[in-house]
Amino acid sequence: MEWFETAPDPPMNEVGPKRILVLDDQEALTGLCREYLSSLGHKVFEARHLEEARECLRRESIDLVLCDVGLKGGESGLDLMRELLPRAPDVAVCLMTASHDLQLAIDCLRQGAFDFITKPFGMAALGRAVERALGRRQTMINEREETDALMRSLARFPEDNPNPVFRVDGAGVLHYSNRAGQSLLREWRLELGEGLPETLQGLLRQTEDANDDGSRSAVEIGVGDRIFSFTATPIQGGSGYYFYGHDVTEWRAAERELVRLKNEATELSMRDQLTGMANRALLQKRFVELTARAPTTGERLAVVLLDLDHFKEINDVYGHEAGDKVLVRVALRLNEALRDDDVLCRWGGDEMVVLKSGLPDRESVEEFCRDLLNLGREAARSPALGAPITLSAGYAMFPADGEKLDSLLQKADQALYRAKEMGKDTWRGYDVAEDGAVFRGNPGVLARFNRTVNDEGIDVHYQPLIEATSGRMVAVEALARWTDPELGTVPPARFIPEAERRGLIGRLGECVLRKALDDLASWRESGLEIGLSVNLSRRQLLSRDFVSFVAAEVRRRALPPSLLTLEITECPSFFDTGAGRDRLEELAAAGYGISLDDFGTGYSSLAEIATMRFSELKIAMELSRQVVEEKGRRVVQAIVMMGRAMHLTVVAEGVETEEEATVLKSLGVDRLQGFLYARPMPADDLVSIFGQSMVNGEVRR
After folding, report:
1. How many helices (H) and strands (E) does the chain have?
2. Helices marked H in 422-545 — which ranges?
3. CA atoms within a 13 Å half-sphere pointing along the CA-CB vector of 192
4. Coil, helix or strand for 161?
5. CA end-to-end span of the chain, whole Å?
6. Which of 155, 301, 311, 671 could lock onto 350 through a cystine, CB 3.0 to 4.6 A?
C-alpha cells in the first residue's frame, strides 16, 4: 500500500539544508523520505538497521536522525537515540512509529526525542516534523552557546542567570549561590558553608561515579509549589561542581494535563453518550477485574440483562426523544441500587446489562432483580405515555453458569426471553435444563426454524446507505429476518446464535445472499443502480467453496462484482486465521468490496488492517452517537483521517438525529446509515415508500 500521500512542500527551515539519516527497515519508505527531503535541499543518508546507522554516524556529520521505533530483529530507534544523547548531543532525533499510543509519545519525548510522528503520514506532516526537530536542535545549540558564553564571563555568570546555580566542593558543601538560588536556600533553611540537601547529594554521587562520556544525570526536587530539575557538572580546570537548576513546573503541569485528557478520552470511550451508562468495553474491563479476584475471595457475580417492555411502541407513537428520556430516567434510577464495584451498561437500544458483585446465592439475585424492576417501573412512569412501562430481566451467575462474559450474556439472554414469554414485567434465571428454551423449550420451534432455513424461507429486509454530500441513496444493507407462525417476529440476536450453534449459519447466509442478489438484479433492471452490502459469518468465510459460490451467484444474475460489498464484523477471529485472510484476498481480487463492520469496538490492530484489502470502514453506532460531544468528535475524526489515508470509504452506522448527521458530514464521513433515514424494511416496502426517488437516488423522509 502507499504510505505517503501527495502534499504541498512546507517552507525550508530557517536554519537551512542539513544532513539527515533515515533509519527504517522498509526500503520503500526510506526511499520516499530521501526523495522528498532531498527536494527540500537536505542531504539524506539511509540505513536499514542499527549497525548500518552507527557506521553512517561515525563516517558522516549528521544533523538529524529520522528513525523508526520498531525495527526488524527486535531492534529499536530508541536504542540509537539513547546512544546519541550522551555522545552526540547536537544530533536531533525524530522518532517514527505506527503506534497511536499517547503515552508512548510522552515517554519518547521525555527520553530525549526532538519530535514524534505516527505512520502513515503525509509529505507535509513529514516536512513539519523535520522542520520542528531541526528548529529545536538549533534553539538548543544556541541556548548552550549562550550558556557557555555566560560561564566564560565571570562578570555576568552565573549571577544574572534567572535559574538557580550553586557551586559546591567535592564533599557537597555550598560555596556559592546566585540570586535565583538564594531563594531556594531560604526555603531549605540552608546557608553557604553547609551541605546540600540529601536529594542533591545523591546527584553529586551519581556525577562522581559517572563515566567520562559527557553524560549528565538529573534529579527533580520540589521546592514549595515549584519543581526544579538539577544537573551537576564538574568545574573545568578547578575542583568542585556546578549545580544548575531549571524550573520545570509548567512542563510537568502540561504532562499532567495530557494524561488527564487521555483519561477523559478513555472514560468517554467507555460510556454511552445518551445515558452515561457504561458501554460494552467498560463492561468487559470490569468483568475481567472482578473475576480476577474471585479465586481468592470466592466472589460470585450476577450478569443481569434488562429490557424495557414495549419500548418500540414508545418510539413509534411518541417519538425517539420521548424514548430517550425514558431510558435516561431508568438509568439514573437503577444506578441508585448499585455499589461502586457494580456496572450498569447500555447493551443496545433499550437493553441494559447489570454486573452485580457481592451476592451470595440465587435468592439474593432474585431479590436484586425484583428491586431493579420496581425501580425501573417507577422511573419509567409518565402520565404523558399513558400505559405504565415495565421491565423484564434474565440473569446468569459467575462461575456457576459460566466463566466468560459472552457465555453468561448469552445465557442471561435466554432467561430474559423466557421472562418475556411469561408475560413480561418479571424475571427469570438461567436454568441449564431449559438451555436453548427459545427452541427446545417450545415444541416444534427448532423443527420450524430448521425447515425455514433449509427451504430458504428466511426474509430479507434492507436499510439504505446515504451519500453524505448529496443525500442520495447509494446502497442498501441486507439483513436477515425470521417470523415464526407461533412466536411471531424472533430477533436476529436470538436466532442467529442458534443457527451458528447448530451449523445452520452457512445455509442461512447463502439464503440471504441469494435473495438479496435477486432483489438487486430486479432493481437494476428497473433502472436503479445502487450497491448491496451483505454480512458474512466466520463459518462462511472459512468455507473452501464460498468464493466460488459467490462468483457463481453473481455471474448467474449478470451483476458486476463491484456492486456487492461483503461485511465482516470487527472481531479477533477474522485476523487470526490464515484461511480467512486468503478468502478475503480472493474476494477483493475478484472485485467485491470488503467492509470492516462495527469498527471501534476495540479488537482490530491497525497493523492488521493495513495489510488487508478492505475498501470500506463502518464506524460502530456507539461512536456515531458520541459525535455530538467534543471528545467523541475527536475519536471519529481520527477514524475518518485514518480511512482517508488508507483510501477507504467511511460509513457511520446508527445515525438517529439530525445533529449527529450534521456533525458526521462535517467530519468527512462518506456515507450515513440509521433510523434517521429509514428502518430496515422488505424490498417491496422500500420501493413503495421511496417510489420514483429510488431511481434518481434521492431519499425523502
Report:
1. 26, 25
2. 445-454, 492-501, 505-525, 538-542
3. 10
4. coil
5. 40
6. 311
Position 200, amino acid: L
Rounded to whole angstroms, what are the CA distances from 281 to 206, 268, 346, 595? 46, 11, 11, 22
Alpha-carbon distance of 531 to 537, in angstroms, equals 20
d(CA 324, CA 219): 54
C-alpha 495/C-alpha 501 separation (Å) is 10
Q: What integer is the mean pLDDT of 300-320?
A: 78
Q: How far are the Cα atoms of 528, 665, 675 from residue 469, in angstroms, in the given order?
A: 19, 7, 18
The answer to whether 583 touches 561, Cβ cutoff 8 Å, is: no
Can you read off the three cell numbers belonging to residue 521? 438484479
User: Cis ω on the peptide bond leading into residue 120 (within 30° of 0)?
Assistant: yes
Kindly give, in sequence order, each residue whose CB lies less than 8 Å from that of residue 615, ignoring residues fewer than 6 positions away: 565, 588, 593, 594, 595, 648, 649
For residues 575-605, b (16+ Cβ closer than 10 Å) or e, as one string?
beeeebbebbebbbeeebbbbbbbbbbeebe
| Cα 176 → chain centroid | 54
Q: What are phi and psi of 674, to 5 degrees?
A: 160, 180
Cβ neighbour number for residue 54 with a 10 Å cutoff: 15
Ramachandran region, residue 529 (left: φ > 0; alpha: ψ -120 to 50; beta: rest): beta
pLDDT at 700: 42
Note the pLDDT tens digit of each residue in 99-119: 777 677 777 777 778 888 888
User: Between the CA atoms of 195, 199, 203 and 208, what dihedral angle is there, to the nearest 10 degrees?
Assistant: 50
Torsion of CA 664, 667, 669, 672, to 10 degrees: 10
Name the DSSP letter for residue 432: G
**Which amino acid would we find at residue 630?**
E
> Are 636 and 660 spatial neighbours (Cβ–Cβ below 8 Å)?
no
pLDDT of residue 105: 73
- Residue for grid cell 558564553: 149
Asked whether the beta carbons of 632 and 612 are under 8 A apart, the reply is no
pTM: 0.43
Q: Residue 561 gets which letter from DSSP?
A: G
Q: Which residues have C-beta within 8 Å of that of residue 434, sequence separation ≥ 6? A: 414, 418, 440, 441
pLDDT digits (tens, 9 = 90+) for 243-298: 888 888 888 887 887 777 666 655 555 566 666 677 777 788 888 888 887 766 66
Query: 609 and 570 in contact (C-beta within 8 Å)?
Result: no
Nearest-angstrom CA–CA distance, 620 and 618 = 6
Pick from 658, 604, 654, 591: which is nearest to 625 by CA? 654
Q: Which SS3 state, helix, strand or coil, does residue 487 take?
A: coil
Structure confidence at residue 592 as a pLDDT band (50, 70, 90): very high
Task: Return the CA Rg of the chain.
Answer: 32
Nearest to 468 by CA among 293, 295, 652: 652
